User: Which sequence fits this backbone?
């Protein structure tokens, strides 16, 4: 029925569907588009795979010959030779196994290992109301993992069954609270700084309690003086706690100790080392530097000349000097200026310096966020009749901080890695301090790469988690372009 | 071994504080603890075990001083110091005594205002080369690449040695002993140079020590000894004579085994004075009469300490050599206890 389609060049029947050409499907297409799309990419792919091949060929046998159970580097070598023949090399992870406690806890007393472990676990619980307030499922997954980890780890750290049962009950109760209300654990967030200090350093419970009560006093002072104006009340809220910490605590502490003595074994700062030290300094630095950085950023944009000049001077000075020089000042020069006999804890000094250092960088990151806000936002706040602090708190900072998240988290990650620099002031950081100490024993002299790789992996886990969290936070706060 | 001009300057700047802190003995007694600056970790000389208990040849000095002054060799707070911070830590008062394999030099004694109270180990700089290199003398190292720790006296010694022998070399800068070993084994340098004791310890830890030789030339003098702050002579005397007591004990045959027996009285009046059975040497130092006995009891006499930490029965296997008693052809010669 198709006479008028009789021309020879006209197809009379539908052709069946054909498979796409080989170069356009599957692996080949992917390879062509991603790896060999042009001369340059082809070259780079070949060069890259050559390097990869070389690395694997060179180092895979070393990894495959890993030894996990040995008493010394010499034994490791004997085992490798016995198993893989003469001339074979192998990684000696037995060093990590043997000195695991030193890498994790430094010289922290063995019977108290549970204290820093619990402090780290509770840190996640205390942070949950702030970090994981919006999603119940994420909150419960994270806290569940932490609780399970604590319960599994504790018997291994020498905690008795009864104590472990009590811990399980407490963790379960906190999980229920966290499940029912996002802000349910906020009380823990409030007391956590004092609690963590007490867990880590031990001693009388009243020291941290009285120190923390300084914040309550400051709050009370602010409430009492609020009607006399902002400047006065802010001044009172700062001065009263400072006076309390400097003069009051010392007077009252013996009284409390005498009436209601309660203390756990004190652990001195020089016993800290390894990841306990890195995390103590890192977490304290992160928690303290963010608020200081935000205040500095606001001060730098202030209209008040003195405030602005001080902020600029501080930020530029701190950013202009290397962290190591600040650490040297903290550990060595301060001794010359302080009255003889003053015992100013070395870890506290380092935390102060690291905090100031990070705060200066945070300040600039946040200032970038503030500068990125459209002018209309500030004007809108003014037109609503909000005062300075309300405008900052309700309108400006939430938006500015959201923009600044990647920069802030980068600063935190950098700061956490910088905690390894404390080795230069004689503290035993995990990367070099502990590693050198371990290598100074004759058994482990000669193990070079293994400790570095191990410590690097642990740092990667922490920093990658922080990085992933910041990406999650950015997605969650993405309010624009809706 | 190491010297840093910057921190030397810092140390000198802190001199005022050094004078202010005179009265170290009272400070230590009031504190009930000796702050002792040690190496962050050097095989045989100072190393913590997995429980944080320090031991080693330098650490033994700390223990002896603590035993003499406080009556308990365990009342020591070990402050690990790096090559850069050690002298400043001493000058600033952070440590009472520095027992950290530091070379006694003119500049350190006078410019940095430290007082070296004696020598507990006579060391010297040497070279290690692979046997395959076919070198049997340091004089044949012309044109070699040499791994060397930067900012140390060894670096200056090396330059002097090559200049004096009209040879050239290419230095490979390294930061620590562990890095040096790694570079040397990886073939980055023909020879590795540091103190002979360090070379011996390093070689002993190799997979095949037999493939490497330590060349016979010792190109420098490295008298290592404990140091205290300048200006507190009483404290300096205590540390000096504690070290001397350990050396004298070996000379007179006082060991940790026969210490109790000899302290009941012996035929040698010098032993009696040393152990406090006769005379009253202790009070002249501001201590009691049994100070030296306690110091010796802490870890034995000098020879016992040497044998237990770095001697020939240990993996480091150092011979006594220069560190033998003067009666045995060595350099150890303590002034008399009278």
Assistant:
């Amino acid at each position: 029925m198709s006479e008028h389609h009789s021309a020879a060049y006209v197809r009379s029947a539908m052709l069946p569907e054909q498979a796409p050409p080989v170069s356009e499907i599957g692996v080949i297409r992917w390879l062509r588009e991603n790896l060999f799309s042009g001369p340059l990419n082809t070259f780079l792919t070949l060069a890259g795979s050559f390097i990869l091949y070389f690395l694997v060929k060179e180092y895979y046998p070393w990894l495959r010959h890993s030894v996990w159970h040995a008493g010394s580097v010499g034994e490791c070598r004997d085992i490798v030779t016995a198993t893989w023949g003469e001339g074979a090399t192998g990684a000696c992870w037995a060093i990590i196994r043997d000195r695991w406690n030193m890498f994790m806890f430094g010289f922290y007393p063995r019977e108290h290992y549970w204290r820093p472990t619990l402090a780290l676990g509770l840190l996640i619980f205390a942070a949950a109301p702030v970090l994981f307030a919006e999603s119940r499922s994420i909150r419960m997954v994270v806290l569940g993992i932490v609780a399970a980890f604590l319960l599994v780890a504790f018997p291994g750290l020498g905690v008795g069954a009864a104590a472990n049962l009590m811990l399980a009950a407490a963790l379960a109760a906190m999980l229920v609270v966290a499940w029912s209300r996002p802000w349910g654990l906020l009380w823990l967030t409030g007391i956590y700084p004092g609690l963590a200090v007490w867990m880590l350093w031990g001693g009388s419970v009243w020291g941290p309690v009285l120190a923390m009560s300084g914040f309550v006093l400051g709050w009370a002072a602010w409430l009492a003086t609020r009607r006399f104006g902002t400047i006065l009340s802010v001044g009172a809220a700062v001065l009263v706690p400072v006076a309390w910490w400097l003069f009051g605590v010392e007077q009252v502490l013996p009284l409390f100790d005498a009436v209601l003595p309660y203390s756990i074994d004190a652990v001195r700062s020089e016993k800290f080392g390894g990841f306990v030290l890195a995390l103590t300094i890192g977490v304290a630095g992160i928690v303290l530097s963010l608020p200081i950085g935000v205040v500095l950023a606001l001060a730098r944009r202030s209209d008040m000349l003195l405030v602005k000049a001080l902020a600029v001077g501080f930020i530029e000075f701190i950013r202009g000097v290397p962290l190591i020089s600040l650490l040297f000042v903290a550990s060595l020069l301060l001794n010359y200026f302080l009255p003889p006999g003053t015992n100013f804890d070395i870890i506290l000094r380092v935390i102060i310096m690291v905090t100031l250092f990070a705060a200066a960088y945070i300040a600039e990151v946040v200032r970038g966020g503030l500068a990125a806000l459209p002018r209309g936002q500030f004007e809108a706040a003014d037109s609503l009749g909000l005062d300075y602090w309300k405008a900052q708190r309700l309108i400006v900072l939430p938006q500015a901080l959201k923009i600044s998240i990647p920069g802030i988290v980068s600063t935190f990650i950098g700061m956490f890695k910088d905690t390894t620099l404390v080795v230069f002031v004689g503290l035993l950081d995990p990367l070099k301090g502990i590693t050198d100490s371990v290598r100074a024993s004759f058994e482990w002299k000669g193990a070079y790469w293994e400790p570095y790789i191990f410590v690097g992996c642990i740092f990667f886990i922490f920093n990658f988690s922080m990085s992933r969290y910041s990406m999650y936070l950015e997605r969650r706060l993405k309010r624009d372009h809706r | 071994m190491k010297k840093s001009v910057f921190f030397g300057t810092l140390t000198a700047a802190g001199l005022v504080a050094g004078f202010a802190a005179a009265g170290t003995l009272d400070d230590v007694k009031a504190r009930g603890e000796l702050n002792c600056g040690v190496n962050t970790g050097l095989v045989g000389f100072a190393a913590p075990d997995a429980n944080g208990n320090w031991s080693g040849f330098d650490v033994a000095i700390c223990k002896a001083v603590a035993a003499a002054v406080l009556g308990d060799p365990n009342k020591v707070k070990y402050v690990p110091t790096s090559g850069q911070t050690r002298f400043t830590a001493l000058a600033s008062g952070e440590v009472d005594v520095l027992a950290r394999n530091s070379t006694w030099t003119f500049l350190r004694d006078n410019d940095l205002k430290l007082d070296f109270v004696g020598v507990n180990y006579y060391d010297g700089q040497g070279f290690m080369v692979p046997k395959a290199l076919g070198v049997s003398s340091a004089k044949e190292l012309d044109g070699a690449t040499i791994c060397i720790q930067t900012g140390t006296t060894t670096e200056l010694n090396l330059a002097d040695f090559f200049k004096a022998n009209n040879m050239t070399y290419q230095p490979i800068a390294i930061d620590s002993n562990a890095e040096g070993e790694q570079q040397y084994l990886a073939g980055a340098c023909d020879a590795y140079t540091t103190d002979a004791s360090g070379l011996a310890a390093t070689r002993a830890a190799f997979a095949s020590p037999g493939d490497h030789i330590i060349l016979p030339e010792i190109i420098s003098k490295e008298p290592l000894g404990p140091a205290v702050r300048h200006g507190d002579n009483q404290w300096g005397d205590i540390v000096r004579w504690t070290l001397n007591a350990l050396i004298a004990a070996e000379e007179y045959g006082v060991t940790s085994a026969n210490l109790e027996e000899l302290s009941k009285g012996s035929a040698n009046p010098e032993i009696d004075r040393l152990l406090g059975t006769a005379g009253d040497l202790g009070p002249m130092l501001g201590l009691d009469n049994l100070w030296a006995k306690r110091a010796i009891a802490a870890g034995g006499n000098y020879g016992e300490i040497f044998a237990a930490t770095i001697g020939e029965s240990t993996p480091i296997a150092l011979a006594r050599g220069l560190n033998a008693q003067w009666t045995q052809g060595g350099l150890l010669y303590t002034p008399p206890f009278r």
User: Anything to note?
Assistant: The longest strand of chain B covers residues 34-39. Residues 233-252 of chain B form the longest helix (20 residues).
